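stage 2 :: seqdesign
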């Protein structure tokens, strides 16, 4: 496990919070923890409403609108909830607040406060199109990446609990395999870089899922891979997100144009910070999961194109 500066920053933050816990005590910080946890859940569950409003006010990348809504809602709800927590604390008996055991136990909620705050900030920084190097460092951090993946998993659980679609989350953007619409990304990327390591990691994850389901593994087909890479690159360069190109070429049209023979075919597309978030999101979505676990498919081409501050565009082309 190779720790980086993100891990060091998290550990320093946790140490500072633990030290603060000894001074403020368990009761005060337990109320703060409840307020922070609730504001985190409110932001994670309701940010799409605010993000939609932000996007309507001006054309901007989905990641910026979603992260803006997430941060703003978290801050606003936090102000109200922390105010309420502070008021409740002043109503507790003075003897209870000043007790030695209250001081000593303050380390516990303080540490959890630090963990929650770290997860909140890191998740927002991964989504915000600010600095590609910062995003890479967060995702390369053993502790930071687990926090980001945990936030993504929590959001998926909340979406399922409320019966909402998993096609778009804070960190994942995708479309149903049969969808015909085209989404304007409100950004274009001129410097696009292929990420073969991400492609191989995604193939390994797909085949692990198929093995668990008792299905044969998929073979990476280089012709399909070229088609997948070309589509991922085209979406980033021209700023759209769709299974069909602006000229109306469907996935099947692109396979035929590349002289690829097939009986059945399918396509998954996703825009995400990294492979782990993309794969987990696709597996939670019924249509994408069906493609990944289809017994009809034997070959796959995966195209992962790094769009820098905007994340990685993934295309999966499946054929028999």
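stage 2 :: out
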């Amino acid at each position: 496990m190779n720790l980086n500066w993100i891990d060091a920053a998290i550990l320093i933050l946790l140490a500072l919070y633990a030290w603060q816990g000894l001074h403020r005590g368990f009761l005060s910080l337990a109320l703060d923890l409840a307020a922070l946890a609730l504001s985190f859940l409110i932001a994670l569950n309701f940010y799409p409403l605010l993000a939609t409003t932000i996007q309507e006010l001006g054309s901007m990348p989905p990641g910026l609108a979603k992260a803006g809504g997430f941060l703003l809602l978290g801050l606003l709800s936090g102000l109200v909830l922390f105010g309420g927590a502070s008021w409740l604390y002043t109503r507790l008996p003075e003897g209870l607040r000043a007790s030695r055991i209250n001081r000593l136990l303050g380390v516990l909620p303080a540490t959890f406060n630090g963990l929650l705050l770290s997860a909140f900030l890191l998740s927002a920084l991964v989504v915000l199109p600010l600095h590609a190097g910062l995003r890479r460092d967060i995702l390369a951090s053993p502790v930071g990446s687990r926090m980001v993946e945990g936030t993504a998993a929590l959001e998926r659980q909340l979406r399922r609990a409320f019966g909402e679609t998993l096609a778009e989350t804070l960190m994942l953007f995708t479309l149903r395999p049969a969808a015909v619409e085209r989404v304007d990304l409100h950004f274009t990327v001129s410097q696009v870089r292929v990420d073969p390591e991400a492609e191989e990691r995604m193939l390994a994850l797909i085949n692990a899922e198929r093995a668990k389901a008792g299905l044969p593994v998929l073979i990476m087909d280089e012709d399909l891979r070229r088609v997948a890479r070309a589509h991922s690159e085209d979406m980033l360069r021209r700023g759209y997100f769709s299974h069909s190109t602006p000229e109306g070429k469907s996935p099947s049209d692109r396979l035929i144009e590349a002289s690829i023979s097939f009986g059945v075919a399918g396509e998954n597309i996703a825009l995400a910070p990294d492979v782990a978030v993309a794969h987990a999101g696709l597996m939670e979505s019924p249509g994408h999961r069906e493609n990944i676990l289809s017994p009809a498919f034997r070959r796959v081409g995966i195209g992962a194109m790094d769009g820098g501050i905007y994340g990685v565009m993934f295309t999966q082309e499946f054929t028999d």
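stage 3 :: structure notes
- The radius of gyration is 22 Å.
- The mean pLDDT is 91.
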